[in-house]
Amino acid sequence: MSPGAGVPSSGGALLVVGDVVTDIVARHRGPLASGTDTAASVRTLPGGAGANVACWAAHRGHSEVRLLGRVGTDAAAWHERELTACGVRPRLVVDPVAPTGTVICLVDTGAAAERTFLTDSGAVLRLGPADWSDALLDGVARLHLSGYLLFSEPSRALVAVALAAARARGVPVSLDPASAGFLVRLGVDRFLALVEGIDVLLPSRDEACLLTGLPDPADAAAKLSRHVPLVVAKQGAEGALVARAGAVCARVPAIPTAPVDTTGAGDAFTGAFLAALLAGAGPEEAAGEGCRAGALAVRRVGGRPPTPS
Question: By CB neighbour count within 10 A (0-12 exposed, 13-18 middle, 19+ buried), where does 123 fall?
Fold first, then answer.
């Protein structure tokens, strides 16, 4: 196990490397009406799994959260303002060619508030090794990587560079797989090879089962923990599973709530979980903080926490 894997930390910054996107959230009720109009409430909001994680970590009280991401010229200033308002220190590389990534989130406003994503990654997948500097790790106690980085060649190369730099400094690294759909395209074996050396894996239930081929999420989390020192599998309304050394060691209950929009709930969990680890919590306690943040997130539209007044 690398130094600090799932072990309380005395402080230092959290560096998140990942996606910054513009979310267009369309909330509708019932099935979409093909070939005609479906009434919906539509909002344009800042998003991106990596950016959301950083904002929730700052919201849950961590004093210094940094974010490296890539955006287009079309929305760079807006995203910088929104991140700063959440307490994040952004380092946004402005792409001269590609636009900012955009995700259309179709949210069914029924009881489950389930969502479907239409994703145009834009500048996100052009984040590469040239955007990295080892100096980004100065003062950093943990590095978190968004799984979306694994879905293009330039950002996969960045992951390799960042992992090597973090290992050289003894900085523990966490990763959220991000998308079961993209994982299918990437391939399980390739994913596991690319994340070799990380300390904490934070998959969803579907991602954990996909990565192991096992139908039971507890079995899946246990199996993944033979590859990664600490696995925290997010289970939505059923809470979270914490696994180490091939066995589930904690089952953390969810906070009961009535969901409005589940967009970003997993990001909220991850951000709060990492903030709690950095504050000195153990993995089970940190997962409880993650569940509390997830419950708050699903009561809001979009993937970000409320900004300070």
Answer: buried
